[in-house]
Design goal:
By secondary structure, this protein is an alpha+beta fold. The chain contains 6 helices and 16 strands. 20% of the residues lie in helices and 28% in strands. Its EC number is 5.4.99.-.
Length: 290
């Protein structure tokens, strides 16, 4: 894997770049230094020597890939550092144990194996019942940098949802989310939970069908956040029976539509968007003209 030193990194040492920009831990930086597997012009690099804009560094990374499974994959962006794919509804993001091999991460690993171009490392996740965009890192440096951006809320995500009932205007829900002690698979609004903020923008209303199409913007990214927050205001997502939504469709009407980020290795601002697929459209037609 190669990276090119950007003008904004001119004069920094590799130690500074790994620590301050890519957020690589002290142990991992030490292992890289001792292995002498970071090269410039074919020679091991001095980690404390200032680098110049345009320098090209070659890294030998030993990431452990998961089991690869062949399956269709809708790739929306890819370079040597990261991959953004459109997850279909009904597919898990990643395996919970090595015996699971039919998750999106397994499919991504098969795709990467075809060009020997990396390891499938999801930066965030979507519920199995949600479709849309997921960001994968292709190596450990990328995962560290992207995870730091996610933690600092520098990766923005927007979702489409169809809610039960007519929502009269835009809403911001700022309610903490915690575990539901009465149901192991559910979350709930809880004063002792983690902070969570969801901005809801009304796009269209269908009063006859008593539904509202909305776009949700997340400030935080808690498990089931949109599902919990919309349910808490009396407008659960259509099809989301876990949180009180009416079963008017064969799927939960929630789709991760947009992803915004600054690329950690090029500093280019990226906007990736994907419209809901045919299954969303066919399910929607069964209950509304939206």
């Amino acid at each position: 894997m190669q990276i090119q030193i950007l003008p904004t990194w001119d004069g920094l040492t590799l130690s500074q770049i790994l620590k301050d920009l890519f957020h690589i831990g002290k142990k991992a930086r030490h292992e890289m230094r001792m292995a002498r597997e970071v090269l410039r012009d074919g020679q091991p690099i001095d980690f404390e020597k200032p680098l110049s804009s345009g320098d090209i560094l070659t890294f030998s990374l030993h990431d452990n890939p998961i089991t690869a499974t062949k399956a269709p994959l809708d790739v929306r962006f890819e370079d040597q550092h990261l991959l953004i794919v459109n997850k279909p509804v009904g597919v898990k993001t990643h395996p919970n144990d090595p015996t699971e091999t039919n998750t999106l991460a397994n499919f991504v690993q098969f795709h990467l194996n075809q060009s020997k171009s990396g390891t499938a490392m999801p930066v965030h996740r979507l519920d199995q019942t949600t479709s849309g965009l997921i960001l994968f890192a292709k190596h450990s440096l990328s995962l560290a940098a992207l995870s730091d951006k996610l933690m600092k809320r520098q990766i923005k995500r927007e979702y489409l949802a169809i809610l039960d009932g007519v929502l009269e205007g835009d809403r911001t829900i700022n309610q903490p989310i915690g575990n539901d002690r009465h149901h192991s698979g559910r979350k709930r609004v809880s004063p002792n939970g983690q902070s969570a903020e969801t901005h809801i923008h009304v796009l269209e209303k269908d009063k006859a069908a008593s539904v509202t199409l909305v776009r949700c913007k997340l400030t935080t990214g808690r498990t089931h956040q949109i599902r919990v927050h919309t349910s808490s205001i009396g407008h659960p997502i259509i099809g989301d029976t876990l949180y009180g939504g009416p079963k008017r469709t064969k799927r939960v009407m929630l789709h991760a539509e947009r992803l915004y980020l600054s690329h950690p290795f090029t500093e280019k601002n990226m906007t990736i968007e994907v419209a809901p697929g045919a299954d969303w459209q066919s399910n929607k037609k069964s209950f509304t003209t939206l």
